Amino acid sequence: MTTDFQTAREALGARLRELRAEAGLDGKDLASKIGWQPSKVSRLQNGKQTPAREDLTAWAHAIGRPEAEAELHGLLAGLDMKQRHRSWRRQLAGGHRGRQEIAVRQTNATKTIRGLEVSRVPGLFQTPEYARVIFDANAEFRGISPTTEAAVEARMRRQEALYDPEKTFRFLVCEAALYHRSCPVDVMAEQLDRLYNLVGQRRVELGILPFGAQLRRTAPHAFWIYDRRLVIVETISEELWLTGDEDIALYERAWDWLAESAEYGAPARRLIGRARRSLDLT
């Protein structure tokens, strides 16, 4: 059983446990309503057993939350590690929360994360207000239930990993992301202040790819590398989860080539400060 599979299964189990608790039911009560043994409820919500779609449907209806069925089915789809293409339509059917819980557990299971962001601030570095705007806009774009507050809470919880002495974060951010503003100016100012203060932080290496830099390889899209076992690539319609050795090596090379042209330390702070000063806060 792969780490990624178990991580996704634990995320699903945690959501099942949370939904049960919100309904005011204990494990025995829920088992009785569905006609299961209490041990099955325990195994499912602790990530010890993989549920069938029918199990999730029964769970959602037993707790009086039939609308949660789509979210749970989306989380179940994320368990298939052979599925390289994961549509956003299925993953976000019940809102953003479930996918954010998977991200929390992926981060907890990883020692080194490398990433490239082209047009926005990485989720690990986002302020709550910036994240809230991103989730709201994406929910409107996709026509889904936003579950924004729960998603923001999960994203902030994920950021606790930045202070774990066993982990390292190495990120490249294109300078354009410092200027692309999908949020109110005061929110963007706070977000740039956050980035400025992250530069030089222990265990966080933040490089800015400046306008006009000569690149051995252009930055075509965002991607995240989890240790040397998984690459996640986001497109408008789907995520790609790549685990093959050749795919991982290719993205590592792309990251290394781009990192050669990045600015770090004081020069990175100057680039962030310049973007901050460009905001009209009057």
Automatic annotation (TrEMBL):
It holds the Pfam family HTH_31. PROSITE patterns: HTH_CROC1. Residues 16-70 form the HTH cro/C1-type domain. InterPro entries: Cro/C1-type_HTH, DUF5753, Lambda_DNA-bd_dom_sf. Coiled coil: none annotated. This is Helix-turn-helix domain-containing protein. It comes from Streptomyces pathocidini. The lineage of its organism: Bacteria, Bacillati, Actinomycetota, Actinomycetes, Kitasatosporales.
